[in-house]
Design a protein that fits this description.
single chain, alpha+beta, Rossmann fold, 6 domains, six-stranded antiparallel barrel, four-stranded parallel sheet, globular
Length: 873
Amino acid sequence: MDLVIVESPAKAKTINKYLGSDYQVLASYGHVRDLPSKDGSVRPDEDFAMSWEVADKAKKRLAEIAEAAKSADRILLATDPDREGEAISWHVLEVLRSKRGLKDKPVARVVFNAITKRAVEEAIAQPREIDDALVEAYLARRALDYLVGFSLSPVLWRKLPGARSAGRVQSVALRLVCDRESEIERFRPQEYWSLTAELATPAKDSFTARLVAEDGKKLTKLSIGDEAQATRLKKLLQDAAFRVESVESKPHSRNPQPPFTTSTLQQEAQRKLGFDATRTMRVAQRLYEGVDVGGETIGLITYMRTDGVDIAPEALSAVRDLIKSDYGAPYLPDQPRRYFVKAKNAQEAHEAIRPTDPARLPADVERRLDSDQARLYELIWKRTMASQMASAEMERTTIEVDARSGSSTLGLRATGSVIRFDGFLALYQEGRDEPEDEEGGRLPPVAADDPLSALGVAASQHFTEPPPRYTEASLIKKMEELSIGRPSTYAQTMSVLRDRGYVRLDKRRLVPEDKGRLVTAFLESFFRRYVEYDFTADLEEKLDLISAGEMSWQAVLRDFWRDFNANLEDIQGLRVAEVLEALNEILGDFIFPPREDGSDPRTCPQCADGKLSLKLGRYGAFIGCSNYPECRYTRQLAEPEPDGDMAQQAMSAEGVALGEDPDTGEPVSLRSGRFGPYVQLGADPAKGDDKPKRASLPRGWDPETMNLEKALQLLSLPREIGAHPETGKPITAGIGRYGPFVSHDGKYANLDSLEEVFTVGANRAVALLAEKKGRPGKKELKALGEHPDGGPVTVMEGRYGPYVHHGKINATLPRGKDPESVTLEEALALIEAKAAKGGKTAKASKAKTAKTASKSASKTKAPAKKSPAKAKG
C-alpha cells in the first residue's frame, strides 16, 4: 500500500475515494514545523542555519504519518503545487527522516492542479523528486521575514510604544496606504467650469455637445477657472449660430480579459461580490478541495494560488465547444485566445483559475453550494468562458460643431459609442474600482454643414477631487504592478494590517490609523531603504531567481543582512527624543494642521508659551506641551472626523430604525452606547418594555453600511449549528472577546473570519474543535532554587523568549543569553531589577521583602544579612 500525504483532511478524503484501497491518504493539516518565536531561530553567523520546531498540534498527526510510513511500500508527497506546498512536503520528509522511519523506502513528489479523478491519477503516474530550488526559495523568504520581523519589531516596541510589528511586505503595503492619505491631505481643490449646449438637428433630434475650443485654442478640463470666464463664454454660446463641421465614425474592438489569477480574482471578488481577500481565498479553497456533486466529492476549480493565465488544452477545447453550442458560431473566435502575464516576476508554471469542468454550469451546482461558494464559482466560470469569446465590436462617433458668435469662433464636440456586436459582453463585463468617464450613447444622424439650433446652454461649476483611498482590490493591484509580495501572500498582508490596528476599513476604503502612520514615518526616517518600492520589488525578483535555480539563497541573505544589521546597530543608540523630533518633522502636516488665524500650529493653545510635540505614552502616541508638568495640555494626533449621518442618528435615544424582524414583528434599530455602536431588537426598556436583545457591531463593521439583514444576522448569535456526532450536544457559533468562534461542551475553536460565523457548517466546526487542544501551558526550562524571600525561582519558555520567574515577577533574559547557563545569582539580580522599575508588582515585592526581613530580625535579634538579590554583578 502506498502512503499519500496532503495538507487538508477534506482533500485527503476526496483523493482517497479516487485512489481506492491500495492507497492510504493522510493530512498534515498544513505546515508541521516553523521557526520558534525567539532569538536564534535563524543564525546569520552560521550561514543562516535555522532551527525548526514541530507545532504542538502537529505532533500527533506526524506520529500517525510516521507510523503509517513504516508499513507503506511507497510514500507520495502530494501537497499543493506551489512554493508553500513544496515546503510542506520537505518539512514532512525531514521529520520522517529524523524519526528514522523511512529506511530505504522510495519517496516521490506528485502535484496536481485540480482535485479531479483524472488529474490525481495522472499525477500519481508522473512522480518526481522534491524541487530543491523551490524549497530554497521558501527558506530564503521565511528567513528574510523572520530577520526583518524579529529584528525590527523590538526596535519599534522600544522606540515607538504602541507599535506592534513590522514586516518585509506588510510595511511596504502600509506605506502605500499612508502615502495615499498624505496625497489626499496635501490636495487643494481647484475650481473649473464646463459648458454644454443642447443642440437640435434639422430632423428635430437632439444631442449634447461640450465646449472644447475658443478661437482655435484648445480648452482643457481646467481652462475655464472661474465664474466670470464661464459667464462670458455662456453668453457667446447663447448668441451663436451652430453648424456641423464634421462627422467621423470609427469601428473599434473591445477584447475580453484573461481568466483569473490569484490577485485578479481577489480584486474582482471585492468589486462584484464585496468579498475581502481573505474571504475570497477561503471560499476558493473550499471550491478547490471539493464539494459533493451527485454523490461524488469533486473539486470544482483548479488551484487558486497562481499567477499563470494559461488554460490546459483539454479545458480550452471544452470551453470552445460550450461557447459554440450555447452562444453560436459568431461568439467563437477562429483560434483559441492566448494570454501572457505582464508582471515581470510572474511564475507561469500553473494554469489560471478555472472550472475543472466547464460543462458544469453554475446553475447545475448552485443547490450543492452555500451562497458564497455559488457566487464565486459563477464569477470564475463566467470569466473563464468570456476569456475565450469573440471581441465586442463597437462604433465610436465624433461630431465636431462650429459656433459663430460675433467675431468669436467656438468649437464643440459630441461623442457617442454604439455596440454593433456584443461578443463576450453578452456574458461578462469586468468591474472597476473607479467609474470611467462615460461616453454618450447613440448620436442622431447628421452630415457636415448641417445647421443646428440651440435648445439651451448650461455652465456647470466643478472642483478637482483628490486621489481616492485604496480599496483592498486597488491596493492588491498596485502591489502587483510594483512587484511587491506574491499573490499567495496578499490576503494575509491585508489581514495583518487590519489586525495590527494599522488601517481600518471605511466604506471598503483603507484608512490608515494614527498607529500605522507613526510606524510608516518611523521606518521612512530610519529604515527608508527597506520600505522603498524598488528595493522590495528587487528582493522579490531575487527570490524568484532562487526558485528558478539561478541564485544562491544564502548569497541573497548575506547581501541583505550585511546592510540591514548595520542599520539596526545605528538605530539602537538613538534616543527616543531624536526619534520623536524626526516624526514631528515628517508628520508635521498631519499632526500640526494649519490654524485658521495663521498662528504657529505648534504653539500650545493652553499656556501659549510651550511648544507642541509628539509624545509617547503607555498606550501609544499623543500630542503634548513642552512645558509639562506645569502645562498638562494633551490631544490626540488628529482631531476625529465627524461621523456620518447614520452614526450621528445612532447617538440619539431612538437610534436609527432598520426595519422589523419578520418573525416577531419587533423593531430593529442601530444605536450607540458606552461601548460603541450596537443593534437592538425590541423597544426601549426605559419606557417600561421588556429588556431587548442587543448585539455590538464587530470591529470593522461600519455603522454607515448597516441594514436589516446584517442586523438580524448579528442578533441571531450565538447560532446553533447542529449536534456533535460523538456527544449529541449542540455546537454553536458566535462572536466573543477574542473574535469569531465555534463552541461545544465548554470547548472553543477560533474561526477564520466574521463572515464564517454565519455560514460555518457542522462538518467544519467538528474538524476545528478536533484540532483545537487549547493554549499550551508555560514550559519550565530550568529550576534554579529558592528565593531568599521564599518561593522557587525558575527559567521559563515564553511566547517572546525565555525569562526568569518568581512569584508575580517575570524578567526577560538578556538577548543571546543561553537559558541553560543562567545561575540563581543572575536570576535574582534580574528579578530585583525588574521589581525596582515600579508598579504594583514591584511594590508588592518590596513589601514582601521588608516583611520577611523584619520577621528574620525579630527571630535572630541580629543584623539582617544583605539579600543576594541586591548584589551587583
